[in-house]
Write a structure and sequence with these properties.
- The protein is about 45% helix and about 20% strand.
- The chain is of the alpha/beta class.
- About 30% of the residues are buried.
- It is built from 7 helices and 7 strands, in the order E-H-E-H-E-E-H-E-E-H-H-H-E-H.
């Protein structure tokens, strides 16, 4: 799929609170090619791509088939950033780069508390970060050369990470002979 695209598909994933949306928004601004930021969680809610809502966990049970049907034409076009707390649902053929954001669990706890998450949800997400759930999911779902793990603990990390991804985009385009014409 990625051979004919003029812009990549970048997956930015990580435990809730690691900075996915902030990274994706800045990357969309800084990218040398137009990239559309898709907050997958928002898309699920806005387009009704879920089976039910869990009151206790305050989260949606996603209808993965509907979600993938919605995203397929966008992914085949390229030029998108998929921002979501999980990545293994996306077919391997879609992703050109998978960025897994990581954060110190104490800092993560504070971020989730500020969001008003219930204690049970904060604990579960904190445990997921400590146990490397998202990075292991990425490593088991995609080729190792496209999975990158980046720290996300403050503005300095944010700017450095986005600059690194911009360099990757430039190399990706050069490797494919993509020009601005």
């Amino acid at each position: 799929m990625s051979t004919s695209r003029k812009a990549p598909v970048i997956v930015i994933t990580g435990t809730p609170g690691t900075g996915k949306t902030t990274h994706a928004e800045l990357l969309a601004q800084e990218s040398p090619v137009p990239l559309k930021h898709i907050n997958v969680g928002d898309m699920v809610k806005e387009k009704g791509l879920y089976e039910s809502y869990d009151e206790e966990w305050q989260s949606y049970t996603v209808d993965e088939d509907k979600l993938l049907d919605e995203l397929e034409p966008l992914a085949s076009e390229g030029g998108i950033i998929l921002d979501w707390h999980t990545c293994d649902v996306f077919p391997e053929r879609w992703a050109d780069l998978v960025v897994v954001l990581r954060c110190n669990h104490t800092k993560l706890w504070d971020r989730l508390e500020k969001r008003g998450y219930p204690l049970k949800k904060i604990q579960e997400n904190n445990e997921a970060e400590i146990m490397d759930v998202v990075i292991e999911e990425a490593r088991s779902s995609y080729a190792p050369e496209i999975v990158v793990e980046l720290q996300s603990e403050g503005t300095e990390d944010l700017e450095s990470n986005v600059a690194r991804i911009v360099q990757w985009i430039e190399a990706w385009r050069k490797d494919r002979g993509v020009t601005d014409s």
